[in-house]
Specification:
The complex is a heterodimer of chains A (480) and B (406). By secondary structure, chain A is of the alpha/beta class. Helices cover 21% and strands 20% of the residues of chain A.
Chain lengths: 480, 406
Amino acid sequence: MCWIVQIFGLLDLRIFDKKCLTLPIISQLHIQSMNLRIRKGLQLNIKGAIPAGARICDAPAAGVYAVIPDDFTGFVPKVAVKEGDEVAAGAAVLFDKAHPAVKLVSPVDGRVKAVVRGERRKILRVEIEPCAISATAARPAQVSASDPRTLLASSGLMAMMRQRPYDIVPNPESTVRDIFVTAFDTAPLAAKEATEGLSIFTADDFEAGAALLGKITEGKVYLCHDSSWSFGAVKGTEDVSVEGPFPASNAGVLIANIAPVNKGETVWTLDLATLGRIGRLARTGEHCFDTIVAVTGPEAVEPALVKTIIGSAVAPILKGHMPDTERHLRVISGNVFTGVAVNPADGFLHAPYRQITIIDEGDDVNEFMGWASLSPAKMSESRTFPGHFFRRLFSPDARLNGGRRAMIMSGQYEAVTPMDILPEYLVKAILAHNIEDMEKLGIYEVAPEDFAAAEYADTSKLPLQKIVREGLDYLRKELE
Amino acid sequence: MASLRNYLDKIRPNFEPGGKLHALHSVYDGFETFLYTPRTTSAPAGAVHIHDSIDSKRTMIIVVLALLPCFLFGMYNTGYQHWLALGATSFPFWELMIYGFLTILPRVAVAYIVGLGIEFTFAQIKHEEIQEGFLVTGIIVPMICPAEVPLWMLAVAVAFAVIFAKEVFGGTGYNVLNIALVTRAFLFFAYPAQMSGDKVYVATGTPFGYGTALPDGFTGATPLGQIATQSGPSLELLGLDGKIIDTWQAFLGLIPGSFGETSTLCILIGAILLLATGIASWRVMLSVFAGGLFMGWIANTFASPVYPASYLNPLDQLLLGGFAFAAVFMATDPVTAARTTTGKYIYGFLIGVIAVIIRTYNNGYPEGAMLAVLLMNCFAPLIDYCVVQANMRRRQARLTSKTARQ
């Protein structure tokens, strides 16, 4: 048996595969900047992008803000406040059961309006009503920048980061091999202004943030951006210029192509806004909760950039952007791949707080024999649809567009997964609860979002992100 | 259209739990999802909110469309061979087509009724949606059998294949072997007299009383059948009219053979559709032909009178018999083929090689494509296993080399 494997090992030197990545050789030498070209992925043309040169306008102040622990995977919430308590912006409202130093904080000065619980008393969110606060209100912890881990944990910024393996809120005590900052977003309709937090953060913030993170990791702080990056080289970071379609901006894809995670290693990931917030806190002591939200999507009226505060209710942000229609709409806080559907009337902005996408729900449509359609309006990666050949903008809705099936087509997941991973086999190992195979197939390198493109393209309509999330949770439960 | 939708909505309660027709809910679901795109929408969180428009219905229907040229040609050729055997000199197009159509119609009907009937039953038992896999299988099966295969045999073979090669494994997507080929193999081994030899490949009957019957015991061998019984180095393949079949005729497909697989031209049209739409894997298809050419060339280079088929030039190996049909429509079945990229090349190449080996070096089986695909279906998981192991070892090596450096 062994020799057969050996022979196939030789054959698998990717001589047949069209080379998907041009990897610069990463040596142990100090490289200041590198280029990464990612070819595999999805290039979706969806209607409702932010027009070029759009101005940023302020959203009307929201009457209520929410801290939603479900946004922070791996964070097991315990309440630090009671209803009616006064909290200052940056003061803890929730802390993590496993690591009590890790907090989620209030984004505004105000009063705790409600701790909303769901089934089995699960904490769904803490709602905070902004108001003037008295001197007795809970204040943010005072931590010096010389203790970076405590500073991040207590300010709620650590919860905004993620760690590989498991794609969860980092364990504050872990040894960190490298830190990856994603400074661009290839998801459909993402806006550069929102990703970069234009007019909120300065290059000084990013430098201060990188300096603080540099104290945490033994390795490097990689700053990955695309060619439209506005800030130039940021001191203290390894500059990586990336080109490619979604999911090129996923931390998992970047890590896999720059310095893959091995078993036993921990890598932290964060987005640029979090880096800016860390820097601002380290530099000036200010807790910054401002964010720019791109209101986008085929159904959005006049897509626009809106400045608001994280955790804000969505209603004031959506004002003037919701169409007046009888059709069912889906308002997604986030992008169409990884966002959360929210109720436009009483929903809240979810992490990572930079995009809202409005699409048709589609459950009120009668499409006769949709599988046989030759309409150029059908969006597809498959060349069986005429729309594939036109450079037009599509208005997809939320339907699965088919029934759930066993895996039938092969190679579909690989075609949109720019990592040296066999997604189909990893998914099968997860479904089989085979821990040994999961490890060998690279489960430590992936996050659910890395399977979003495959989930979109899948003919069999399998819920891949959910499967991977459950696999990661199962693995963590078994191994920790 | 609205009235149809209203009608479906009106009768739906009958099929829901507690309704009097609940036992047929899979059938209802099957028709409803066929007529209207399901309204199921994405989960509110933890999933993508938009999905590609492609689904397995469209995938399967493209394959059926790709099979249509072969099917239409099969109708014509069935009539043509029949007329040729009668000694006709003129070949009225529509009469030929009608004869072929009437001959194949009951076979297609039996294949679909038996196969879909079983699928519906299993879907009902398992409370699942009806799966589309048999849409393709049901049309392929009559195309790879002699046009006049007895209906009851076809029914038995389809039932065997669908139950024992597919449903016991879990249904579409879980089968190890290609269902259409299992049907063919079952017929071939269970009823060899009706499935091989020189008596079965020309339609002799009068379907629904149409046409003129040929005398009992009429013989008309397929080219590969002639080769298998040939002795000596001179290789002459004759058509029913006694004229020599050249490469061009083999390409066009006006030769005796199974209903739908004689015309390489029509198969090529189907292949173009499958590749242009990206439904079939070009890697598999290309490597099957490469393997067939390679082994055909070897066999031809070392031609010997003991193995008459070794005198065929490599191109003829691809044109005759079911080779091209198997390469385009059988080997590319994504469920039973190798699923890894590297694996597909190996899988396809070996199908081509083995098909030619079987038909050349085993005089008992004039056609090797069926057995080659079935054999490689069995080995596809092993090929994939090896490719997956290689990926795992790369990851392991990365870790080891890193530990060693430190």
